[in-house]
Specification:
Keywords: DNA-binding. The chain is built from one helix and six strands, in the order ββββαββ. By secondary structure, it is mainly β. It has a five-stranded mixed beta barrel. A hairpin with a 5-residue loop joins β5 and β6 (94-107).
Length: 118
């Protein structure tokens, strides 16, 4: 049960082409976002879609997999941990970021394959 203290599992579609950086040490880091969708019926019986966006960070071998196989629109499953950090912009304003640091990624779509929507 100790591994369940900070565990996130998401299945969604990649919102933009992953940003890949190679650090001076040679280690890669990938940053991208995924969208998860929930559907429900409102009080008028109309189907409503609620989309949530999640920032994902992948390091090392997982970042290499993201670089090679993940592209905008592809469906992926992510398992990782939720992290928060803050930074200051030039104007001195503090910004806060919440991200999922990926421990595993499962490719549910293949790069270059067209996704169909209904």
């Amino acid at each position: 049960m100790i591994t369940l203290k900070n565990k996130v599992q998401l299945i969604g579609n990649v919102g933009n082409a992953p940003e890949i950086k190679t650090l001076e040490s040679g280690k890669k880091v990938a940053n991208f976002s995924i969208a998860t969708n929930e559907f429900y019926k409102n009080s008028n019986g109309e189907k409503v879609q609620n989309t949530q966006w999640h920032n994902i960070v992948a390091w090392g071998k997982i970042a290499e997999i993201v670089d090679k196989y993940v592209d905008k629109g592809k469906e992926v499953a992510i398992e990782g941990k939720l992290t928060s950090r803050s930074y200051e912009i030039e104007a001195g304003e503090k910004r806060y970021v919440t991200e999922v640091v990926a421990n595993e990624i499962l490719l549910l779509g293949i790069k270059g394959e067209e996704n169909s929507t209904e």
